Amino acid sequence: MKQVALITGVAGGIGYGTAEVFAENDWHVVGVDRQTSDDLPAVHHFIHADISDIDASRRICEEVAAQEGRLDALINNAAIQIAKPLIETTPAEWDAVMAANLRSVYLAVRHAYPLMKVNGGSIINVSSVHARITSANIAAYAASKGALSALTRALAIEMTKDRIRVNAVLPGAIDTPMLRAGLNRGHLEGNDEYELVKALGARHVIGRVGQPREIGEAILFLADSKRSGFITGQELVVDGGATTRLSTE
Fold this sequence. Notes:
This protein is of the alpha/beta class. It has 8 helices and 7 strands.
C-alpha cells in the first residue's frame, strides 16, 4: 500500500507544490484547505475544512482513518500572514494568525496521533526564516513561526517513543501568493510586482526567490524515513542563502 501524506493549505503555493512532489514519488496525497478548488490533480483525496476549528480538525483525521486507514506523514503547511506594524494589528487579527499558524498544528497533531502511532511516521511543520530573523511589519507572523519552531522541538521529544519524527522546514522567499501579497511592506524598491520580486531575489546568495516545489522536495526528504530516519527535532532552512549574508554587506 502507498504511504499516505496529509498536507494542509494544499490549495496554496507551497502546499500544492508539495502535493505534486509527493504524488510524483508515489505517495497517496490527502489535501486540506479552507478554500475550495476543483483543480488539484496531484491531490487524491481533498477535504474542505478550517484546520483551526476543533471539530473540523477531528473530522479530518477521522475521515483519513476511515478512507485511507493509515497516515505516514503530516505536513502542517497552512498559514496566513498579516503585514502591518504590531501596534496596528488588532487583537482579532493577532488571534487569527495564531489560530491558523499555531493552534491548527496543535489540533492536527493531537487528532492525528492515534493514527500515526500505529506505524510511526513523520510530522513536518512548515515554519519560516522569520522564526529566526525577521523584518518590520510582520510581527504576528514572526511570533507564530518562532513558536512553531519551539513546538517542533518539544514534539520531537514527546513523539519519539512512538517512532514519530518531528522536524520543521524554514522557507525563505518563495514565489507564492502570500509572498506577492506582502511585497508592499516598504522593504523593497520597485514600481510593479515583477520588479519587486526581482529585487527581492537579488538579495539572495543564489540570486532569485525560490519555487514551491523546492520546498516540497525538502519536505519529502524529511518525510522519507529511508532518507532522514536519524533526523528529528531539527529545522531545515531553505532560503537561497538569504540568512547567510551579513546585513551590513
